[in-house]
Amino acid sequence: MAESDGLARRIAQVIRQDVTSMHGYAIQPSAGLVKLDAMENPFRLPEPLQRELGARLARVAINRYPGQCVADVVAALTRHVQLPAGCKLILGNGSDELIDLLSVACDVSGAGILAPLPGFVMYEMSARLRGLRFTGVPLTPDFQLDRAAMLAAIERERPSLSDIVTRWEA
Q1: What domain count does the chain have?
Q2: Do 162 and 133 form a contact (C-beta atoms < 8 A)?
Q3: 104 and 73 housed in the same domain
Q4: CA 167, CA 123: separation in Å to the nearest integer?
Q5: What is the mean pLDDT of residues 136-157?
Q6: How far apart are alpha carbons 39 and 71 in whole angstroms?
């Protein structure tokens, strides 16, 4: 018991209280369901494709940082999406990482993140973890973006990061 008390005291000394009071990111059980809310494919790869990918992966030097191939992929994607001059493409391990990277980049005094509610929880979670202001803008009763409310919130809050661009540009 004394050891766990010491650990609790140590955690209280080194971890912010707002972080220790946060709830974990819960993934709901989905056994037997076709899950469409997490961009997951409900089907396994066909056996021949699994074998081919396994053979190719066996030849990749995954013990090294990627080299020129990453720059080649970024260049090809930049051309494919016709990214305007002066803009750059960033790749990541899913939207969680990209949102967190952007929140780190925006972590200056008074910065904030704005996103629709309900919406993707990582916007609010990243804001809280980085000490940024979070503003949630409710969706309409039929779960659509409320354009007027979003634009008003952007004008009022002046967030550093907003989910609005990706939603309206798509």
Answers
A1: 2
A2: no
A3: no
A4: 14
A5: 93
A6: 26
Q: How far apart are CA 153 and CA 148, in angstroms?
A: 9
> Residues near 108 by Cβ (< 8 Å), separated by ≥ 6?
160
Q: 54 in a domain, yes or no?
A: yes
Q: Is 30 a domain residue?
A: no
Structure tokens at 117: 């509610």
pLDDT score of 51: 96
Residues 71 and 97 in one domain: no
CA–CA separation, 58 vs 76, rounded Å? 24
Classify residue 161: in a domain, yes or no: yes
Instruction: Please identify, among 91, 120, 152, the residue that sits at the C-terminal boundary of a domain.
Output: 91
146 φψ region: left (φ > 0), alpha (ψ -120 to 50), beta (else):
beta
Task: Quote the domain boundaries for residue 124.
Answer: 92-170
Tell me the whole-structure pTM to 2 decimals: 0.65
Give the model's pLDDT for residue 134. Answer: 93
How many Cα atoms sit within 13 Å of 135 on the Cβ side? 22
61-113 per-position pLDDT tens digit: 888 877 777 889 899 999 999 988 888 888 888 888 998 888 888 877 788 89
- Convert 112-166 into a string of H (helix), E (strand) and C (coil): EEEEEECCCHHHHHHHHHHCCEEEEEECCCCCCCCHHHHHHHHHHHCCCEECHHH
